[in-house]
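User: My instructor asked us to take a sequence, write out its structure as tokens, and then describe one feature of it. I'm not sure where to start. Here is the sequence I was given:
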Amino acid sequence: MNHNWPWVALAVLGAYHGLNPAMGWLFALALGLQEKRRSAVIGALLPIALGHAAAITLAILALRFVQHFLPLNILKWGVALFLFTLGVYRLFRASHPRGAGMRVGGRDLFVWSFLMASAHGAGLMLLPVLMAQPMSGMTHSMAGGTSAIPSSLTASAIGFAVLIHTASMLAAAGILAIAFFETYEKVGLQLLRHTWLNFDLLWAIALLVAGFVVLFF
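Assistant: Let's start with the prediction itself. The structure tokens for your sequence are:
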């Protein structure tokens, strides 16, 4: 179990990202309500999930590249500082990248989701999990532990990590978007108003917590 917890953490983070309306489920819901079709909601979720996965993958690959030039301690402090900075920024300024309206296609949704996930530091939240220890059953043995993301963490392991995280994110976002779509005609926007959470605040706190995790685990 000691080596399996990162997979669980990746899935939990994925669900948490999916619950955040800024990550796309609210956009998918709006498109579905505009076109009055459940299929429009479902059709919007896939490119949104792919854009999220691309942002996650880019963050992981960037860390793997940089770690070849910086010592582990400096790299940890750098990632933590970036997380802290982004977290503080999110606390005091919760603005989002602006899109080009609601008439968008799959490519537009992909790019929008990529920018949103990158702007919110979604990929950075996964780095503490990958930096903590290797994934069970997905790495080769190696001497020492001087890499942030171990070089023994194979491409297939990274791909599987992104897949687990994205699948969990897509499931959570899909359940929310479809549930709100199905109940909209009965309860309208009242349900959204009464169940709304300040995810910008929660997201900022999560970034700060992730920064502490990088330093102390």
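For the description part of your assignment, you could build on this observation: The chain has a mean pLDDT of 75. Try explaining in your own words what that tells you about the chain.
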